[in-house]
Design brief:
Structural class: alpha+beta
Oligomer: single chain
Order of helices and strands: HEEEEEHHHHEEEEEEHEEEEEEH
């Protein structure tokens, strides 16, 4: 017998089934919507997220400056070799010591002459200014014989001048004494002449009256004439003596002037000679210092052309070749012609030294400095462009433990040519395939 389901139960089953179907559809829709949302977000991210476009190439570290050849201008004999091939040197470091006795002798002789001239100048200035001679204690120690000679010359010259002036002063005193004597004599004769005149004036009337003898009167007149003559002679001698004194005074002054003129002339000559020698001394010192051959810049010794002590070095001979180590490192990289289109100077690059693990030590930041104007060919006839990259750092590692990078090391180079989105990177094969689709023969 067929069993019938009540209507209420059927309605309940129908409602339950519809609810179950709606719940299942809602869960699937959420999953689909989530996947769509994720896909949209990935597309948006891929559209705006960018990555670097990189052109890669292999290269080698080269000297940033040309190989420097160290020479010696004067030459000499190799006395000591201070470096070997492959040594790293700093600027100014001694490389080879060369002995040149000729220049050392000239330098020492000129220095001794300069010291002697300094002592002579001190003496002449003392003579010129009439001051005591003061000798530099250091010069007195360095050149004692010359210092002693200059002291003796000073004493001799000043003594000679003083003696000559003293002789003239003595003569002047003698002449002045004679003048004083004549003046006293004139005074005495004048007094005597006055007395005789009085006596003559008294005697003359008596002679006229024949009280006194004519002979005695004539004797008085003769004595008066003698006194007058002596007085005139003494008076005339004084101007002559004064003239002689003036002449001696002038001669005394001329002695001092001649002494000063001679000292001034010799001082000028000594100063000129000293200045000339001091100027040459710089050249002599330079010649002596050049006997010590030094590195013109920091670098690595590539080759030493002299290797025997006592070897004769000719003037201008090549002695040492140095590969410079500058503040910048220069890398020459080979780039394929197909990758050259987007390269230009100034682009950033990363230099990875193959001798050091990049994952541990990292690379060197750099920039493109120059790109060759045309392609070059290697030994296998493969063409490439030569790109020069400069790095501001010259070593890897830490400051305390630097890892030196020297010319000749091989490197790989990543040159950043631009940026592109991840979406364009993903679509690139599709776009390329689209461009080439249906075009084949």
């Amino acid at each position: 017998m067929k069993q019938t389901i009540p209507q209420e139960q059927l309605d309940y089953i129908r409602i339950y089934d519809r609810a179950a179907r709606e719940q299942h559809y809602s869960g699937s829709r959420i999953i689909v919507l989530s996947l769509v949302l994720i896909l949209v977000m990935l597309v948006v991210w891929a559209k705006y997220a960018t990555i670097d476009e990189v052109t890669r190439g292999m290269g080698v570290v080269i000297p940033s400056g040309k190989i420097q050849t160290v020479q010696n201008l004067e030459g000499g004999i190799v006395e000591e070799l201070l470096v070997r091939d492959g040594d790293q040197v700093v600027k100014g470091q001694a490389l080879i010591k060369i002995k040149n006795q000729q220049f050392e002798s000239i330098f020492k002789e000129s220095k001794s002459t300069i010291n002697g001239l300094a002592l002579e100048i001190a003496r002449l200035r003392a003579e010129l200014n009439h001051t005591p001679l003061v000798i530099d204690p250091e010069l007195k120690t360095i050149v004692p014989a010359i210092a002693r000679i200059q002291s003796q010359l000073y004493e001799s010259n000043t003594r000679f001048l003083l003696n000559q002036q003293r002789i003239l002063e003595e003569k002047i005193k003698q002449k002045q004494a004679q003048i004083d004597k004549y003046r006293l004599q004139i005074k005495h004769l004048a007094k005597k002449a006055r007395l005789l005149k009085q006596q003559i004036d008294i005697t003359q009337p008596l002679v006229e009256r024949k009280i006194e003898s004519q002979t005695d009167f004539l004797d008085l007149q003769r004595k008066q004439a003698d006194i007058i003559e002596q007085k005139e002679l003494a008076s005339s001698s004084i101007p002559e003596l004064k003239s002689q004194i003036a002449e001696m005074q002038k001669k005394k002054e001329e002695l001092a002037i001649t002494f000063r003129t001679r000292a001034q002339k010799e001082l000028s000559e000594a100063l000129t000679r000293k200045a000339s020698l001091v100027e040459k001394q710089a050249t002599f010192k330079d010649q002596v210092s050049r006997t010590l051959v030094t590195a013109p810049s920091a670098g690595i010794v590539k080759q030493i052309h002299v290797n025997t002590l006592g070897q004769v070095v000719k003037p201008g001979m090549d002695l040492v070749e140095i590969v410079p180590l500058e503040d910048n490192l220069l890398v020459e990289a080979r780039i394929r012609p197909s990758d050259i289109a987007f390269l230009h100077p100034g682009q950033k690059a990363t230099v990875k030294v193959t001798a050091y693990d990049f994952s541990i030590y990292g690379g060197l930041p750099g920039r493109v400095e120059r790109i060759s104007a045309d392609t070059l060919e290697d030994e296998r006839n493969q063409t490439y462009f030569l790109v020069e990259i400069v790095t501001p750092k010259t070593n890897l590692g830490t400051k305390d433990k630097p890892l030196e990078i020297i010319p000749g090391m091989t490197v790989s180079v990543d040159i950043i040519t631009g940026k592109k989105t991840i979406l364009s990177y993903i679509l690139k094969p599709l776009l390329k395939a689209k461009q080439n689709a249906l075009t084949e023969r």
